[in-house]
Structures are given as structure tokens and as C-alpha cells.
Amino acid sequence: MSDTSTNPPLLTLSSEKVLLYVDAGLDPKTCKASIGMVALKANGDVLYTYGSPIPFVGKAIIAEACAIKKAIQLAVKYDRKNIDILSDSLIMVQMLNESRGPSWEVNTLCEDIWALQQHLSDISFKYLSRGFNTCNHKLAKFSFALVSEVS
């Protein structure tokens, strides 16, 4: 029996597959929000990273959707056609996999994400607990302090 809190999900990767670890940060006290993303080849080599402050969106789920949308936009920009999006937002992953309908708060962002999928050959959305997404979580938190995006 596998414990998902201590074991990462099993990923079947080909040499063409790119892993996009995404996360968002939201600090209601300072009214700051940010996103971060790390793109890795199947062998673990870093392809690119991205961090950016975003307008304060008020809810974590909206910031997570913004992070996923930006990750797909960058995959399209860098001509990465086969990707796995790894997010610590189980609700967003379920909504994007359509196992749960999108909430009204992120419906438009989900529609944007689904439209962007048309530019890709293969995309999947997978849940990854924060414990296995610490690098990207720290990148998103670091991005609070940025004035503009970095990649």
C-alpha cells in the first residue's frame, strides 16, 4: 500500500515528456500574489524556470489557475508539445481533468487553459503534494518580492 503523503505519484515518462511543476503564493496580509514554475526534462535536467508577481486575486485557487495557465503558455512558447503539469492544488487538477466541474471563480481561466491545450500533442494534469513541490513553492514565495517576471 502506498501513502501519497510520503511517495510521489508514479509518472511514466518518455524522452519527449516535460514536467512542469507549478505553484502559486498568496499573502492576504500584504495583498501580494505570485506564481512560479520549473520545467524539467524526463531525465531531471532543468529546461527553464519562471517566477512572477501577479495582481492580487484574493483566493488561492485563482492564483493556482493563473500559474497553470502561464505554465502552458510557456510550454507553447518554447515548443514543448508533451507535458505533465504537476500542481499541489488537488481541486484545480480535478477541475482541469473534468472529474469535477470548474467553480465559477475559475471557470474562465479553465476555459483559457483548455483552449491552450489545442497547441499541445499530449498534456496531463497531476496532483503532487506540496512536500514534493518544495522547490517550486519556494520560487513562488520568492516571487512576492519581484517587481516583474523572471525566467
From TrEMBL:
InterPro entries: RNase_H-like, RNase_H-like_dom_plant, RNaseH-like_sf, RNaseH_domain, RNaseH_sf. Pfam families: RVT_3. One of its GO terms (molecular function) is RNA-DNA hybrid ribonuclease activity. Residues 23-142 form the RNase H type-1 domain. PANTHER family: OS05G0353850 PROTEIN, POLYNUCLEOTIDYL TRANSFERASE, RIBONUCLEASE H-LIKE SUPERFAMILY PROTEIN. This is Uncharacterized protein LOC104227847. The gene is LOC104227847.
